[in-house]
Amino acid sequence: MKNYQRVISYFAGLFIFTIAIGLSIRANLGISPVSSVPYTLTVVWGIEIGIATIIFHIALVIIQILLLRKQFKIRNLLQVPMGIVFGAFTSFSVWLVSFLPPASTIVISLIYLALSIILVAIGELLYLPPNIVPLASSGFVQAVSVVTGIAFEKIKVISDITMIVGSGAVCLIFIHNLGSVGIGTVISAALIGTTMGVIMKIFYKLTGIQINLKPGYEDKK
Protein backbone atom coordinates (compact mmCIF):
# COMPACT_ATOMS: atom_id res chain seq x y z
CA MET A 1 0.00 0.00 0.00
CA LYS A 2 1.44 3.37 -1.05
CA ASN A 3 1.77 6.17 1.52
CA TYR A 4 -1.12 8.25 0.18
CA GLN A 5 -3.32 5.14 0.10
CA ARG A 6 -2.40 4.42 3.72
CA VAL A 7 -3.36 7.96 4.76
CA ILE A 8 -6.67 7.81 2.85
CA SER A 9 -7.48 4.40 4.33
CA TYR A 10 -6.58 5.59 7.84
CA PHE A 11 -8.75 8.72 7.83
CA ALA A 12 -11.58 7.00 5.96
CA GLY A 13 -11.56 4.32 8.63
CA LEU A 14 -11.68 6.89 11.43
CA PHE A 15 -14.57 8.73 9.77
CA ILE A 16 -16.56 5.54 9.17
CA PHE A 17 -15.91 4.61 12.80
CA THR A 18 -17.50 7.90 13.93
CA ILE A 19 -20.50 7.38 11.65
CA ALA A 20 -20.96 4.10 13.51
CA ILE A 21 -20.86 5.98 16.81
CA GLY A 22 -23.53 8.37 15.53
CA LEU A 23 -25.73 5.46 14.48
CA SER A 24 -25.20 3.79 17.83
CA ILE A 25 -26.39 6.93 19.61
CA ARG A 26 -29.32 7.25 17.18
CA ALA A 27 -30.35 3.65 17.89
CA ASN A 28 -30.79 4.59 21.56
CA LEU A 29 -30.00 1.05 22.74
CA GLY A 30 -26.65 1.80 24.36
CA ILE A 31 -23.39 2.90 22.77
CA SER A 32 -20.36 0.70 22.01
CA PRO A 33 -17.93 0.07 24.93
CA VAL A 34 -15.06 2.25 23.67
CA SER A 35 -17.40 5.25 23.30
CA SER A 36 -19.35 4.65 26.50
CA VAL A 37 -17.14 6.92 28.63
CA PRO A 38 -17.28 9.99 26.32
CA TYR A 39 -21.02 9.52 25.84
CA THR A 40 -21.45 9.31 29.62
CA LEU A 41 -19.82 12.75 29.86
CA THR A 42 -22.43 13.91 27.36
CA VAL A 43 -25.55 12.42 28.97
CA VAL A 44 -24.54 13.22 32.57
CA TRP A 45 -22.83 16.62 32.31
CA GLY A 46 -23.99 17.80 28.88
CA ILE A 47 -20.50 18.01 27.37
CA GLU A 48 -20.72 17.98 23.57
CA ILE A 49 -19.84 14.48 22.31
CA GLY A 50 -16.88 15.60 20.18
CA ILE A 51 -15.33 17.58 23.04
CA ALA A 52 -16.02 14.69 25.44
CA THR A 53 -14.23 12.35 23.03
CA ILE A 54 -11.20 14.65 22.87
CA ILE A 55 -11.07 14.92 26.69
CA PHE A 56 -11.26 11.12 26.96
CA HIS A 57 -8.43 10.58 24.48
CA ILE A 58 -6.17 13.13 26.17
CA ALA A 59 -6.85 11.49 29.54
CA LEU A 60 -5.90 8.09 28.13
CA VAL A 61 -2.61 9.47 26.78
CA ILE A 62 -1.82 10.95 30.22
CA ILE A 63 -2.53 7.56 31.81
CA GLN A 64 -0.20 5.91 29.27
CA ILE A 65 2.57 8.33 30.25
CA LEU A 66 2.03 7.58 33.95
CA LEU A 67 2.02 3.83 33.33
CA LEU A 68 4.95 3.58 30.92
CA ARG A 69 7.13 6.46 32.15
CA LYS A 70 10.48 6.09 30.37
CA GLN A 71 9.00 3.42 28.10
CA PHE A 72 6.53 5.91 26.68
CA LYS A 73 7.56 6.84 23.15
CA ILE A 74 7.39 10.50 22.11
CA ARG A 75 5.71 9.49 18.83
CA ASN A 76 2.76 8.23 20.87
CA LEU A 77 1.93 11.86 21.66
CA LEU A 78 0.52 11.90 18.12
CA GLN A 79 -2.46 10.15 19.69
CA VAL A 80 -3.50 13.58 21.00
CA PRO A 81 -3.94 15.33 17.62
CA MET A 82 -5.53 12.16 16.24
CA GLY A 83 -7.92 12.24 19.19
CA ILE A 84 -8.82 15.81 18.28
CA VAL A 85 -9.47 14.76 14.68
CA PHE A 86 -11.53 11.82 15.91
CA GLY A 87 -13.53 14.12 18.18
CA ALA A 88 -14.22 16.51 15.29
CA PHE A 89 -15.29 13.60 13.09
CA THR A 90 -17.56 12.38 15.90
CA SER A 91 -19.29 15.77 16.23
CA PHE A 92 -19.84 15.94 12.47
CA SER A 93 -21.07 12.35 12.23
CA VAL A 94 -23.55 12.73 15.10
CA TRP A 95 -24.89 15.86 13.38
CA LEU A 96 -25.05 13.99 10.05
CA VAL A 97 -27.04 11.03 11.34
CA SER A 98 -29.44 13.39 13.14
CA PHE A 99 -31.18 13.79 9.77
CA LEU A 100 -32.10 10.09 9.79
CA PRO A 101 -35.57 9.10 11.03
CA PRO A 102 -35.70 8.78 14.83
CA ALA A 103 -35.61 5.30 16.32
CA SER A 104 -39.34 5.33 17.04
CA THR A 105 -39.66 1.53 16.91
CA ILE A 106 -37.46 -1.36 18.04
CA VAL A 107 -37.07 -2.41 14.40
CA ILE A 108 -35.53 0.93 13.43
CA SER A 109 -33.31 0.85 16.53
CA LEU A 110 -32.04 -2.63 15.64
CA ILE A 111 -31.38 -1.57 12.03
CA TYR A 112 -29.29 1.38 13.25
CA LEU A 113 -27.48 -0.87 15.72
CA ALA A 114 -26.71 -3.47 13.04
CA LEU A 115 -25.39 -0.77 10.70
CA SER A 116 -23.31 0.63 13.55
CA ILE A 117 -21.68 -2.74 14.26
CA ILE A 118 -20.91 -3.30 10.57
CA LEU A 119 -19.44 0.18 10.17
CA VAL A 120 -17.29 -0.15 13.30
CA ALA A 121 -15.85 -3.35 11.81
CA ILE A 122 -15.25 -1.72 8.42
CA GLY A 123 -13.76 1.36 10.07
CA GLU A 124 -11.29 -0.68 12.09
CA LEU A 125 -10.34 -2.75 9.05
CA LEU A 126 -9.51 0.46 7.19
CA TYR A 127 -7.86 2.33 10.07
CA LEU A 128 -5.64 -0.41 11.54
CA PRO A 129 -3.70 -1.84 8.53
CA PRO A 130 -2.02 1.48 7.50
CA ASN A 131 -0.13 1.28 10.82
CA ILE A 132 0.05 5.06 11.29
CA VAL A 133 -1.09 6.24 14.74
CA PRO A 134 -3.40 4.24 17.03
CA LEU A 135 -6.32 5.85 18.79
CA ALA A 136 -5.60 6.48 22.46
CA SER A 137 -8.01 3.71 23.46
CA SER A 138 -5.77 1.17 21.72
CA GLY A 139 -2.62 2.84 23.05
CA PHE A 140 -3.99 2.64 26.58
CA VAL A 141 -4.74 -1.09 26.28
CA GLN A 142 -1.26 -1.70 24.90
CA ALA A 143 0.31 0.29 27.77
CA VAL A 144 -1.52 -1.79 30.37
CA SER A 145 -0.48 -4.93 28.50
CA VAL A 146 3.18 -3.86 28.58
CA VAL A 147 3.11 -3.03 32.30
CA THR A 148 1.21 -6.13 33.42
CA GLY A 149 2.56 -8.64 30.91
CA ILE A 150 -0.99 -9.75 30.14
CA ALA A 151 -1.90 -10.34 26.48
CA PHE A 152 -3.38 -7.36 24.61
CA GLU A 153 -6.55 -9.28 23.73
CA LYS A 154 -7.29 -10.08 27.38
CA ILE A 155 -6.65 -6.50 28.48
CA LYS A 156 -8.97 -5.29 25.71
CA VAL A 157 -11.81 -7.41 27.07
CA ILE A 158 -11.14 -6.23 30.64
CA SER A 159 -10.94 -2.61 29.46
CA ASP A 160 -14.25 -2.85 27.60
CA ILE A 161 -16.00 -4.42 30.59
CA THR A 162 -14.54 -1.79 32.94
CA MET A 163 -15.71 1.03 30.69
CA ILE A 164 -19.20 -0.44 30.45
CA VAL A 165 -19.54 -1.01 34.20
CA GLY A 166 -18.00 2.35 35.07
CA SER A 167 -20.18 4.26 32.63
CA GLY A 168 -23.31 2.49 33.83
CA ALA A 169 -22.44 3.18 37.47
CA VAL A 170 -21.83 6.90 36.85
CA CYS A 171 -25.12 7.20 34.96
CA LEU A 172 -27.01 5.41 37.74
CA ILE A 173 -25.52 7.69 40.39
CA PHE A 174 -26.10 10.98 38.61
CA ILE A 175 -29.15 10.49 36.37
CA HIS A 176 -30.64 7.35 37.95
CA ASN A 177 -30.66 5.25 34.78
CA LEU A 178 -28.05 3.40 32.71
CA GLY A 179 -27.82 6.28 30.22
CA SER A 180 -24.98 5.41 27.82
CA VAL A 181 -25.16 1.67 28.54
CA GLY A 182 -27.82 -0.71 27.25
CA ILE A 183 -28.46 -3.95 25.43
CA GLY A 184 -26.88 -2.40 22.34
CA THR A 185 -23.62 -2.01 24.26
CA VAL A 186 -23.54 -5.71 25.06
CA ILE A 187 -24.51 -6.72 21.52
CA SER A 188 -21.82 -4.47 20.04
CA ALA A 189 -19.15 -5.86 22.36
CA ALA A 190 -20.14 -9.41 21.42
CA LEU A 191 -20.49 -8.99 17.66
CA ILE A 192 -17.92 -6.43 16.44
CA GLY A 193 -15.00 -8.88 16.52
CA THR A 194 -17.02 -11.58 14.78
CA THR A 195 -18.22 -9.10 12.16
CA MET A 196 -14.63 -8.06 11.45
CA GLY A 197 -13.70 -11.70 10.94
CA VAL A 198 -16.56 -12.25 8.48
CA ILE A 199 -15.69 -9.12 6.48
CA MET A 200 -12.01 -10.14 6.36
CA LYS A 201 -12.94 -13.58 4.99
CA ILE A 202 -15.24 -12.10 2.34
CA PHE A 203 -12.56 -9.58 1.31
CA TYR A 204 -9.96 -12.34 1.06
CA LYS A 205 -12.24 -14.50 -1.11
CA LEU A 206 -12.96 -11.59 -3.44
CA THR A 207 -9.43 -10.18 -3.73
CA GLY A 208 -7.02 -12.82 -2.44
CA ILE A 209 -5.55 -10.16 -0.14
CA GLN A 210 -5.15 -10.90 3.58
CA ILE A 211 -5.83 -7.83 5.72
CA ASN A 212 -2.99 -7.21 8.17
CA LEU A 213 -4.23 -6.02 11.55
CA LYS A 214 -0.81 -5.63 13.15
CA PRO A 215 -1.32 -2.83 15.70
CA GLY A 216 0.25 0.52 14.93
CA TYR A 217 1.35 1.00 18.54
CA GLU A 218 3.85 -1.87 18.49
CA ASP A 219 7.49 -0.87 18.65
CA LYS A 220 9.27 -1.21 15.36
CA LYS A 221 12.46 -3.19 15.74
Describe the protein in words:
The protein has 221 residues and is mainly alpha-helical. Helices cover 73% and strands 0% of the residues. The chain has 8 helices and no strands. The protein has helices at 3-27, 33-45, 49-68, 79-97, 106-127, 136-148, 152-175, 183-207.
Topology:
Blueprint: H1 3-27, H2 33-45, H3 49-68, H4 79-97, H5 106-127, H6 136-148, H7 152-175, H8 183-207
Helix pairs in contact: 1-4, 1-5, 2-3, 2-7, 3-4, 3-6, 5-8, 6-7
Query: What is the typical, i.e. mean, pLDDT?
Result: 88
Using the alpha-carbon principal axes, give the shape.
Answer: globular
Q: Strand share of the residues?
A: under 5%
Q: Give the H and E element order.
A: HHHHHHHH
| Number of H/I helices | 8
Question: How does the major sheet shape up?
Answer: none
Structural class: mainly alpha
Low-confidence stretches: 214-221
Brief write-up:
This protein is 73% helix and 0% strand. It has 221 residues and is mainly α.
Summarize this structure as a short list of keywords or feature phrases.
disordered C terminus, about 220 residues, 8 helices, mainly alpha
